[in-house]
Design brief:
12 strands; about 45% helix; 2 domains; 10 helices; Rossmann fold; alpha/beta
Amino acid sequence: MNVIRITVTIFLCLFIVGCSTVTETEVSPKVGLLLPHNIDDQGWNTKGYEGLLKIHASLNVDVFYKEEINSKEKAELAVAEFVDSGVNLIFGHGQLFAPFFMDLKDKYPNIHFITFNADVHGDNITSLHFEGYSMGFFAGMLASEMSEANTVGVLAAFPWQPEVDGFIDGALYQNSNVEVKVEYVSSWVDIEKALNLYNQMVTDGVDVFYPAGDGYHVAIIEEVKKHGLYVIGFVGDHSDLGQSTVLTSTIQHVDDLYELVTSKFLKGELGTGNKYYDFAEGVITLGNYSPEVPLELQNKIDTAINTYIETGKLPNE
């Protein structure tokens, strides 16, 4: 099976490179990563894989991963295989894994489970939360100011994403007369549906887009480029897809967060429950601005971000 082949390959490669003990006073873990989709989506799953590689490179620990783990049955089997391999820190890369891990944590009390953007509790489970609201807020500020049609749009995967409300509030803060259109794909990876919704939004007059879904965002950016409109990248820095098209990107530095969390685990400092990370921790930033964005607007948004980092207050607070 493809997943098993890839897992074995990465283990053999890392074994050949060699793994050193961290220190005599720290535990020496083996880290496992479960991904809901494949690693080449140029978005969330790619970020998780990059985080795993960073853990190995900077902390010198054995790492394993499995792709396409998107059901409880697959997760249970993958966790059991990780445990057999001596893994004691398991990342489930997404909210999907939270209920699976909540069911499994008591069965494996010596494993520390990590998931994302979910409410968890227990002695051996932690959920990492990116503060998506603030990320969306600054994207909304930029989008509304750059819209010639006075109509902007967020094409999100699910209604629960905090960056959606953030985008709406940021857009309206910057321009109270802007119209914000919101559509939901109800999937991270349904490119066909995302493109259909995008085309409808173009018909409705949207000229600046925020595709808040890491499985279809690149396809949307390519379509925006064809139409000569503007877009704000999501999760990764997408300026390389067109500097005149991508105004900036809201970047989640997943690799840095993986390194930070694993380092805390090594030192026995990783707490349980829900942990929140934002611009102040350096795990969320904006990417480079497009030359299309006026310098005055760049400075205004950068100043707002710096104030938020220093005070914890957004411009509308």
